[in-house]
Design a protein that fits this description.
By secondary structure, the chain is an alpha/beta fold. Helix content is 32%, strand content 21%.
Length: 251
């Protein structure tokens, strides 16, 4: 690959178990149209001319399997590396980041669980970082009204308030970052956790870490097909989207 500063590198956290998807292989290795989710996700990134290197954070006990899998799906033409992921998504991203060469200035982080992200979204995010944004997230407006509640699992939950829907966005990946910023916020979060001083609620995306430490995050348009495969119904939807693509494009 061309590891010059102009080309982005992507980290793909793929070390999760996929508990909400139900029993079976780790989620990233579950198949969609006969091809593992992870392979779809890596292909989607590799299709972007903005991306020169992809680092996959695989389940710690599955690194060799993931290397073999990526090779067997003809992805050995691009620079693709595999590292062992961690116990949390945040840790997996941090370990992936550590494998990116120093000179790379733009880093994308993309969930293996978002196999169908269109290349336009990847390009848009990378371009916004290259144009000077510190952190960029693709997002879509919400269909449902959202209420904030006092959590009481299984029982009635008192409603606290209803944020105005027009101001809310559901965020997706790839999220894009100035590399130095992303490395810095991950290091800070690790230090705080190690010192037991992390009192904020857990952050569920990388841009959230940038926000926590006072950085500036902007939203660009995402795409409905960049949804995350989380529950069994999402796989049904993903199969349908893929079947439609295969029928209409040379996919
Ligand atoms: N991830 C990871 N390392 C972890 C946990 C999650 O790399 N220790 C990755 C997942 O593989 C996935 C992405 O982070 O690509 C988004 O996480 P999520 O959708 O929550 O996947 P899982 O954690 O696998 O699913 P679940 O929470 O249902 O167990
Ligand atoms: Mg998870």
């Amino acid at each position: 690959m061309n590891a010059s500063g102009a080309v982005a590198a992507a980290v793909v956290p793929a070390a999760g178990r996929g508990e909400r998807l139900g029993p079976g292989a780790p989620k990233a290795l579950r198949e969609l149209g006969g091809v593992p989710l992870l392979v779809h996700a890596v292909r989607a990134l590799a299709r972007s001319r903005a991306v020169g290197l992809v680092v996959v954070a695989a389940p710690a006990d599955g690194v060799a399997e993931v290397v073999a899998l990526l090779d067997s799906h003809g992805l050995d033409g691009k620079d693709i590396r595999v590292v062992a992921g961690g116990a949390t998504r945040q840790e997996s991203v941090r370990l992936g980041l550590a494998a990116i060469p120093e000179e790379v200035e733009v880093v994308l982080v993309h969930d293996a669980a978002r196999p169908l992200v269109p290349v336009e979204v990847v390009d848009t995010v990378a371009a916004a970082v290259r144009a000077g944004a510190q952190a960029v997230v693709p997002a879509v407006p919400l269909a449902d009204t959202v209420k904030r509640v006092e959590p009481n699992p299984g029982g009635p939950e008192p409603v606290l308030d209803t944020p105005e829907r027009a101001t809310l966005r559901a965020v997706q990946t790839p999220q894009g970052f100035d590399r130095a910023t992303l490395v810095e916020v991950h290091a800070k979060a690790l230090t705080e956790e190690g010192a037991g001083t992390a009192d904020a609620p857990p952050v569920t995306d990388d841009a959230g870490l940038v926000e926590r430490y006072g950085g500036r995050v902007v939203v660009v348009p995402g795409h409905e097909e960049a949804f995350k495969v989380t529950r069994p119904l999402d796989l049904v939807l993903a199969e349908a989207v893929l079947a439609r693509r295969r029928a209409t494009d040379a996919y």
